[in-house]
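Now for today's protein.

===
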Amino acid sequence: MMERSSRFISLSGLSGVSAGVFALIGAYIAHLWLGGYHQGYNNRGGYAGEDFHSLILKLLLLAASVLACALALAFYFTWKKTKNNKLPMWDHTSKKLLINLLIPLVTGGFFVLGLLYQHEWLLVAPACLVFYGLALVNASKYTLSDIRYIGFFEIAMGLANIFYPDYSLYFWAVGFGVLHIVYGLIMWWKYDMKSKYN
């Protein structure tokens, strides 16, 4: 009862799995686009500004689409779990969770926009990972404590990515894709499946 009153425990592991799957699909599409852009670079013998700006716009729209799909399924799986557990989805605890998640996330979003404005492309992926990790650690006080550990992993991936910026897409795919799938499966088994048999 104490845990239910102080923590939002209706997060579903399937939310993490679905977010990871969408992230990997997005990373694969981005890989194809980047490969096509570099092939064009080789054919032209140099970079063309219009092609570069078009690529950046496409990548931003792709990232927004991946985020929207991940959030939509996260909402669905969370709503379904709260309904099955006969718990409210929106209460004082879920508000605290959302606020503590959004503070680092919105800050990171503006920081990334600043990096894009300053043409610091190589730092965008590490910044996304670090601020997302900070958001998870900050929000973990109001939900499943296991969230903190994936947050630490995300931060570590982002910091490592700073030193290997040429591999940003791979860090992004592992951080947002693989880690979410692994975490989601562990949480699904630990909290969703076991609760059915207890």
Observations:
- The CA atoms of residues 25 and 140 lie 27 Å apart.
- Confidence is low (pLDDT under 50) at residues 1-5.
